[in-house]
TrEMBL record:
Family per record: Belongs to the HscB family.
Assembly and oligomerization: Interacts with HscA and stimulates its ATPase activity.
SMART domains per record: DnaJ (SM00271)
Upper taxonomic lineage: Bacteria, Pseudomonadati, Myxococcota, Polyangia, Polyangiales
Organism: Labilithrix luteola
Gene name, Swiss-Prot/TrEMBL: hscB
Function per UniProt: Co-chaperone involved in the maturation of iron-sulfur cluster-containing proteins. Seems to help targeting proteins to be folded toward HscA.
Top-level taxon of origin: Bacteria
Key words of the record: Chaperone
Protein name: Co-chaperone protein HscB homolog
Length: 181
């Protein structure tokens, strides 16, 4: 499934999600099962399947990691942690040090430090998204059907970095929720 085609969106990383959300709502309304109550069983099944695909497409495009994965996949590049280049030792050491600092802040119940680390990692995450956007836009520019694989392969490691940032930010959120309860 090509989530971009399903939502009528260009194959780009940098998308106007508010426009796509509106498109998603319109498609969801048009495909709502109640609209097919009088249709044949096969038409109801087809509408339900299409509605499920539209919902999945929306989940993919609104998540930066899944959106990037979809764009790499469309270009024929396998993604997933086992298919992507390994992160550099320097990057891994840096992330390890940040995780240790987060664990220490959690143990000390230093929420100011937890928030500070989260903000720092959020900044890194946004920068990784910008790098991905630039590389993907360059690869797909003027050639949506046959993007430049070499350009995409140069930014593929950034997708791995983005995964690390997301896990870190998920942990920050979990600590904040734990502290709030």
């Amino acid at each position: 499934m090509d989530p971009f085609a399903l939502l009528g969106a260009p194959r780009r990383f940098d998308l106007d999600l508010s426009v796509l959300e509106k498109t998603h709502r319109e498609l969801s309304r048009a495909l709502h099962p109640d609209k097919f109550a009088q249709a044949s069983a096969s038409e109801r099944r087809a509408a339900l399947e299409k509605a499920a695909n539209v919902n999945e497409a929306w989940r993919i495009v609104r998540d930066p990691i899944r959106r990037a994965e979809a764009l790499f996949t469309v270009a024929g590049i396998k993604v997933g942690e086992t298919n992507e280049p390994k992160a550099s030792p320097a990057f891994l050491m840096d992330v390890l040090e940040e995780r240790e600092a987060l664990a220490e802040a959690r143990t000390a119940k230093n929420m100011a430090k937890v928030r500070s680390l989260g903000e720092k990692m959020e900044g890194r995450s946004k920068e990784a998204e910008r790098k991905l956007a630039r590389g993907i836009e360059t690869a797909f520019a003027g050639r949506e059907e046959t993007p430049d694989r070499a350009t995409l392969e140069t930014v593929l490691p950034v997708l791995g970095e983005l995964r690390f940032y997301k896990r870190f930010l998920d942990e920050v959120s979990a600590i904040e929720e734990e502290e709030a309860s």
